[in-house]
Amino acid sequence: MRPTHARNNIVCLSASVSLPPAGPARSVPAPVPRTHALPRSRWWVEVLAILWLCWIYDSITELAPLRLHVALAHARELFSLEQALKIDPERSLDHWLAAHHTLALLASDYYDNAHFAVTLALLGWLWWRRADIYRPLRNTLVLANAIAFVVFWRFPVAPPRMLAGFTDVVASSGAFGSWHTGALATHANQLAAMPSLHIAWALWCTLAVWRMSAGVPVRALAVLHPCLTGAAVLATGNHFVLDIVGGALTLALAAACVRTAGPLTPRRAAEASVLLGAGARGTRALRAACHKVVTKSPTG
Question: Structural domain boundaries of the chain?
Answer without folding.
Answer: 89-261
